[in-house]
Amino acid sequence: MDDLQKTQLEEVSGQPVGSVQQASDLSTEKPMQELVDQVERDLLAHIYTNLQNNLLTGEAAQQLAKEFLGLLPFQDKKDLVEKLGGLGQKYVEARQTYVKLGIPLEEQQRQERLDLMRSHIQQGNLEDALAVAKGEK
């Protein structure tokens, strides 16, 4: 990738090329709109890169963008992760975005459920802990 392409990609994605985003930067504490914006930027960066490397056709890029826009708005972070994962089954660019953003969000949500279960168990509320484990709470 030459300097011009790197500059263009940095402008599109809003991030330096080659920078690695830490999972902690993607915490579920981020407002939903920030996460959606991040997903959009990251997906666009993957589309741009794959177009430049002839790994994606213009038509496929348009179809991916159209399908992504059809998923909006996301109800919550769980909905975002599920829909992005589904899109990732069809498009490698969405899969790349899912791996970068969706998996860390899922892991954080899993950890939050474990913490809540631990809290219920420490308080002697085994039924509540079980309900959290089953996804009922």
Question: Could you list some keywords that capture this structure?
Answer:
single chain; 137 residues; mainly alpha; 6 helices; 0% strand
Give the strand content. Answer: under 5%
Order of helices and strands: HHHHHH
- Average pLDDT confidence is 83
- Give the terminus-to-terminus CA distance: 48 Å
How much helical structure, as a percent, in the residues?
over 70%
Main β-sheet description: none
Identify low-pLDDT runs. 17-28
Contiguous helical run count: 6
Which structural class fits the helix and strand makeup? Answer: mainly alpha
Q: What's the alpha carbon Rg, rounded to whole Å?
A: 18 Å
Strand element count: 0
- What's the shape? elongated
Structural description of this entry:
The protein contains six helices and no strands. The chain is mainly alpha-helical and 137 residues long. Helix 2 runs antiparallel to helix 5, helix 4 (77-90) packs antiparallel against helix 5 and helix 5 (92-122) packs antiparallel against helix 6 (126-133). The radius of gyration is 18 Å and the shape is elongated.
Q: What topology emerges from the helices and strands here?
A:
Elements: H1 3-13, H2 32-52, H3 58-71, H4 77-90, H5 92-122, H6 126-133
Helix pairs in contact: 1-2, 2-5, 4-5, 5-6
